[in-house]
Amino acid sequence: xxxxxxxxxxxxxxxxxxxxxxxxxxxxxxxxxxxxxxxxxxxxxxxxxxxxxxxxxxxxxxxxxxxxxxxxxxxxxxxxxxxxxxxxxxxxxxxxxxxxxxxxxxxxxxxxxxxxxxxxxxxxxxxxxxxxxxxxxxxxxxxxxxxxxxxxxxxxxxxxxxxxxxxxxxxxxxxxxxxxxxxxxxxxxxxxxxxxxxxxxxxxxxxxxxxxxxxxxxxxxxxxxxxxxxxxxxxxxxxxxxxxxxxxxxxxxxxxxxxxxxxxxxxxxxxxxxxxxxxxxxx
Length: 283
Prior knowledge:
- The chain is of the alpha/beta class.
- About 45% of the residues lie in helices and about 10% in strands.
């Protein structure tokens, strides 16, 4: 039976932290389950920390330091790792970054913007620059890179089932020069054709629906309750109350029911890309 996959500690601070944690645990002759015994966490949680995919909670870090006799090393460094994992992202987005890596399904409704997971570099840069009301931030490049890095989710062999409902207006709104808008829509279409996502388009004349007031992201997990995330321009809100999650779940299902089917939606996205590409008007 092959051993655990090697961790590239040079890839990031979280993977360096995780590799050190695995090394200390194995040096002590402990299994993952044995190390978490007596804590409130399971071995799968520890495994994801060792791979750099999940943040280390402070109470678990303190427990690990006590069991491994590491003199507070993991507790002292866990906040540094937490900050590194969300580098380029707002602090309120941390739960989404962590959730994306573990989710079985991700379902998004996006009425005003193409979602971050699907944005090209030019689209992401334009959107991020638009939020800098007091002048361009020196961190724009960092934020753009961080947003684009999220799309690596689609490169995984077992990526989450990603279902997105886009308002038709997003296919017509030229926030970029026409060629770049065509490229953005082509990118979504290619992901759809490669079955990395299931797209649906809500026609502009579809009438009222339960999620008219804003976008929503719903995530489900194999080992945790579902989670809902909503966002405004400068804030975000994570919801895990089962009653509220269920309301969002039902509203999303009703929205999906009135949207176009995936194949028709894909055809509309491709047609919109061609419209931008063939338009003879100047940018």
